[in-house]
Structures are given as structure tokens and as C-alpha cells.
Amino acid sequence: AENKAPATGAEGAGAPVAKKLTVGFSQVGAESAWRTAETNSIRGEAEKRGVDLKFADAQGKQAQQIQALTSFIAQKVDAIVLAPVVETGWDVVLTRAKEANIPVILVDRGIKTSDESLYTTLIASDFVEEGRMAAEWLAKKTNGKANIYELQGTTGAAPAIDRKKGFEEVLQKYPDMKIVKSQSADFTRAKGKEVMEAFIKSDREQIQAVYAHNDDMALGAIQALDEAGMNPGKDVTLISVDGVKGAFEAMVAGKLNATVECNPLLGPLVFDTINKVRAGEKVEKFIKSNDQLFEQSTAAQVIGSREY
Ligand code: AHR
């Protein structure tokens, strides 16, 4: 698709009129505070730049994302931004986008594909590294000895697979750190609470640490621990991923011990990248965010400067 519409003569001096950039954005849903921050960042940036953004919320369903992409292709959008709910099953629809010459920018989550040319770039955090950072921190905090209960993200989603992988990789070095139970809580606070309640019911005396693949699930787990009269942040050590405001509040309250940041404020980078691609510039296949770990001890100092 062209960036500039040809002059029609009706513009007076005959100067070309800039055509509005049209971008389709297929979002996973609104399962966590992190995702809402990402949606706001991309929508806000589109508005600031005068981009016509077609936004589709898939409510956690891949079928709805495929439908949205099919519709974006039919509408001949200039680019597609996709935050894929799961890693696999994208080749057919992405082949259609490629045939229509529509660049596809993956945001925050990667995919598994037999043909890497089906997407232009992935703008995201390194989830394996986040898992490693969480495990190294927990090993230090517990002197390499802990019964760990893991709350996994959405089954089949890149952050659930990779955050587990990085975490387990580091645990190899610590024979006294064990994941006793591990279950999906779908990245939501409600399910985090529900799964933690079940863990408490069966294993109350053994629970020493909780590793949650996102902050929302950790916040749900904290609620369950509080209600059970246990002591989150003290008797049970909790670490999660995202770095949302709620996690900082829980750290200030002494209930969450640490969070590994995962940057959702991708809007500016997404549209800069689309512009580069349209200008024919080469972009990296993986544009990585740099994340850091935050602990309880600095949470009060940092909370005021958090943007999400
Ligand atoms: O893909 C990023 C993950 O998805 C975030 O950690 C989580 O909160 C979100 O739902």
C-alpha cells in the first residue's frame, strides 16, 4: 500500500496529500493489567500520530485472532500488529498476509513457524531471560533451598513456555530447589487465587515459595495466602513477572518479594518500526526490550516513577 495518495487536482496547488496509515491490531484480550497497559500504549500512540488503528480484542481466543487478521487483509491495511495468544497455528493466515504484501509485526509474544519470512519482526522482551532472572533471585533469597509452587501463564503462550524454561534451566544448578506443583492460572488474578487455594488446601505446610509467570496471578495468590492466614512476603516468598503498579503496591505492603519487569509500552517502537519497514529499511528480526528486576527494598522509592 502507498503512503501518499496521488494528487487529484482538487487540492489546489496539486501537492500530494498524505494518506492516513491504516494498521490492524489484533490483541489477545484484557486478562492482565500488563495487557491493558500495552493496549493503551499502542492505541495512544496511534492516536497521537493520526494512524487509523483497527483494534480487535480476541478475548483470549486464537480463532478470533485469525478472523481479525483475515478481515484486516480483506480491508487491505498497510500493516498488521499481532500479539499472538499462543505460539503455534499461524502459518495459514500469515501466508495470506504475505501474499497480500502486508507486513506483520509481532508484539510481545513470538510464534513457532516453519517459515520465518511470514512475519517481519518481533518486538518483545526475552521471556527465557526473565525466567532465569526470577530463578537466580529466588536462589539467592532462599540460599538455594525452596519448595516452589509455580503459577503458569496461558497454556501454549510464549511467555508461559519460555518463563518456565528459563526458570528451570537455572534450577539445574540448585538441587535443593524444587518445583513441587505447577499449574496454569491463565495469567489472571482470579485464577491465580483459585489455583493457589488448591495448593494451600493440599500442601499448606510445604509451601515456601511461589513463582508466578505474571504479577496478576501473584496478586491473586497473595489474596489466597492472606485469606488462609499465611504470611505472603514473609513465610512464603513470592516472585513474579511484569512490574505493574499493583505489584509495586504489594511490594510496598511487604506481600510480594520481587518482580521482573516486562515492558508493555511498545506503542512508539511499533509505529517507528512500521514506518521503517514501509520506507524499505531493514529491521532486526527480534527487537528486544531491556528489563530489570525490582525488589521490595526499593519498591517505595521507585513506585512513583512507574508508568504502568
Ligand atoms: O505476553 C506478555 C504477558 O502476557 C504478560 O506477562 C502477561 O501479564 C500478559 O497477559
UniProtKB/TrEMBL annotation:
Q: Does the keyword Protein transport apply?
A: no
Q: Which stretches make up the Periplasmic binding protein domain?
A: 23-261
In its keyword annotation, does this UniProt entry include Cytoplasm? no
- Keywords in alphabetical order: Signal
Where is the protein localized? Cell envelope
Q: Name one Pfam family in it.
A: Peripla_BP_4
Region labeled Disordered — which residues?
1-13
The protein's matches in SUPFAM superfamilies, at most eight in alphabetical order, are given as: Periplasmic binding protein-like I
Q: What is this protein called?
A: LacI family transcriptional regulator
